């Protein structure tokens, strides 16, 4: 990764090996400018960077078939495929999810599944949304109590 970052910096980028790692892991939002610079750095083309052997999940419910992205870039029309009942990828439980799950007497993965089922987003995203932007610890604690009550109700319905 360091050599890719070094080559990108030689082309004027301000990338580090962490930037490259973020791109590879899918944690970084990739812009058109990033794609062009990455293609130049790797001495390839943007369509070759985007060529895949498998499906590409644009969202949890919108899937593009292999080869669709390069065709789109070339101006072609691509009919998307809708994925039905595809569960969203599950991230590793956060420390907050582990703590809340322990409080509720369930495993963190169950907490993640319940959060998706109840609120269509992670536990922390729901807590932060309810507490509000720039929330105090007290506001987050109040939101936490409310969410835990909802989870307990759902578990009791079982």
Automatic annotation (TrEMBL):
GO terms for molecular function: DNA binding. Residues 19-49 form the HTH cro/C1-type domain. Residues 123-146 are annotated as: Disordered. InterPro entries: Cro/C1-type_HTH (IPR001387), Lambda_DNA-bd_dom_sf (IPR010982). Coiled coil: none annotated. This is HTH cro/C1-type domain-containing protein.
């Amino acid at each position: 990764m360091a050599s890719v970052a070094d080559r990108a910096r030689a082309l004027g980028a301000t990338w580090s090996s962490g930037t490259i790692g973020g791109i590879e892991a899918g944690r970084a939002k990739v812009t058109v400018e990033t794609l062009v610079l990455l293609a130049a750095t790797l001495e390839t083309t943007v369509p070759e960077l985007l060529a895949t052997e498998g499906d590409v999940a644009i969202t949890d419910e919108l899937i593009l078939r292999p080869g669709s992205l390069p065709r789109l870039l070339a101006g072609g029309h691509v009919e998307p495929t809708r994925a039905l009942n595809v569960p969203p990828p599950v991230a590793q439980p956060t420390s907050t999810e582990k703590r809340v799950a322990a409080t509720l007497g369930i495993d963190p993965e169950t907490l993640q599944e319940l959060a998706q089922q109840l609120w269509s987003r992670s536990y922390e995203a729901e807590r932060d949304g309810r507490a509000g932007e720039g929330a105090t610890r007290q506001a987050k604690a109040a939101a936490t109590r409310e969410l835990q009550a909802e989870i307990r109700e759902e578990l009791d319905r079982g």
